Predict the structure.
Amino acid sequence: MTLYEIDSAIMDCVDEETGEIIDLEKLEALNIERDKKVEGIALAVKNYAAEAKAIKEEEEKLAKRRRSCENAAQRCKDYLSHALDGEKLKTARVSVSYRNSESVTIDDLGSLTEEYIRIPEPQADKAAIKKAIKAGKEVAGAHIETSKSVIVR
């Protein structure tokens, strides 16, 4: 029986007009069954909460491991870039090449116009600045730097 069915059966044990109990044994049995159902639901809540907590803790552990792996990969890329010193490498199992990448460096945030500042926090809109510089505009307080990044496939 569901809780709804049990509650309906409990109401059937009571006379609606007088409020007297019609079948005391049935009412007690239904109350016991209802208490067991409620307890089972409460235990399910506890189990789901405990499982959610365990999953959250595991997510945090996995995120920490992911960051560790990403950092190790970056350290290896840096070492590889230093060791190859701009040379390409291609074998049957791996290919190492370089690509020029551009990023905007903000020299003085205060000298940027509102057009290039993101709100609510004063932050430079590097994409808009890069686009403007590429289009030939001079943006005070910013310039484009070219660097090499290692690509491992």
Observations:
- The chain has two domains: 3-81, 96-152.
- Residues 96-152 form one domain.
- The beta strands are 89-90, 95-106, 117-118, 123-124, 142-152.
- The two ends are 60 Å apart (CA to CA).
